[in-house]
Design brief:
2 copies of one chain form a homodimer. By secondary structure, chain A is an alpha/beta fold. The first copy, chain A, is built from 6 helices and 11 strands. Chain A has one domain: Dihydrofolate Reductase, subunit A, CATH 3.40.430. In chain A, strands 5-6-4-3-7-1-8-11-10 form a 9-stranded mixed sheet, sandwiched between helices.
Chain lengths: ~220, ~220
């Protein structure tokens, strides 16, 4: 089975989205600041069809993710991006545009069946209604010998952590306090897994903490 | 005025103590694991009257703290260490023994006046009843040209952060999940201060993240 790696940006106070998410601000108040570290990087810009940008340790981290990730699992709310409820508009394309930057098959966890939505540039959104293990199996099959990336949101990360299905967790700690919002590492239960810190990479913009999850 | 620096160990999921603190386990269930990274260090052992120990980047961080800290501010619960309520035993010595490892004046925030308690080795516990600004002023006076250390607990750190009185925050991120307990960066209100990440030092045992608090 492919390795399941969660890559996610978190504020120092533990939030992956700010308070009060809306259609205009799906990452909540101030939540767009979380990802500020990535927007000017060459590897990020290239994947979004833009030229130029910065090359540094952070772009190396993004490059690594792009190179090693063969498929992605994400939750329904991350796909629909605050558009809701899903049930009201089963054909909603989410907020990802015609050519999402993933470039690999994406498996969206949902309770509502839907045909796959192919996009330009290699991204196809597939919809999985029979649970997190099935989503992981389908993504692993699609990923081949690359890793499966777990993108969020927080509730989906927590589900995979509680089920013992997450192999690695790389948290990009943004140097900011959001003061509220959606916490990443919450609802883990009374017996959370052990961690092994395998790598720390830092720049003034962000600190990348990588952990292996021990069963 | 002296610089106020908070040095505190936090789990990856944001807790500085585990759930259900008791007199036997004042750091809560599993909370003693937070500080595991320090126990074998030469600088830590020396300050606790023990010989030997490891010298590495982590002992350097502890050494730096010992060298640069001229006085300490802490909350009442951190002093009394789960002994409670303070009001029932105004002469309780806390859990710090005859020769606490601080070696500098300590200013304990409390609502109950009490004469200073001198200990061996340079530690004197002073009790401040007129608020966090007064405690900082008294500690700064005692610290001379060294920094004032803010040791916790979480509620006191939050009070100083909200009041805009904290200059630096060094979080020692322990590679573990507690799953519950006392959160450090909580109750910060809707307009938390900006941060500037000034240093990252890491070892397999712990990651030291240092931030300047911008007003």
């Amino acid at each position: 089975m492919a390795t399941l790696i969660c890559d996610i940006t978190m504020s120092l106070d533990g939030f992956v989205a700010g308070p009060n998410p809306t259609l205009e601000e799906p990452l909540g108040e101030g939540g767009d600041r979380l990802h500020q570290w990535a927007y000017d990087l060459e590897s990020w810009r290239k994947r979004h069809g833009l030229s130029g940008g910065t090359q540094n340790v952070d772009s190396g981290i993004v490059d690594e993710w792009l190179t090693t990730t063969g498929a992605i699992v994400m939750g329904r709310r991350m796909f629909s991006g605050g558009q809701g409820p899903w049930e009201d508009d089963p054909n909603a394309d989410g907020w990802w545009g015609d050519e999402p930057a993933f470039g690999v098959p994406v498996f969206v966890l949902t309770h509502h069946a839907r045909d796959p939505v192919p996009k330009q540039g290699g991204t196809t959104f597939n919809f999985v209604t029979d649970g997190i293990e099935s989503a992981l199996e389908q993504a692993a099959e699609a990923a081949g010998n690359r890793a499966v990336g777990l993108s969020g949101g927080a509730d989906v990360v927590q589900q995979y952590l509680r089920a013992g299905l997450l192999d690695e967790l790389q948290i990009h700690v943004a140097p900011l306090l959001l003061g509220g919002g959606v916490r990443l590492l919450d609802n883990l239960g009374g017996d959370p897994p052990e961690l092994d810190c395998t790598r720390v990479v830092d720049s003034p913009a962000v600190t990348h903490l990588r952990y292996r999850i021990l069963r």
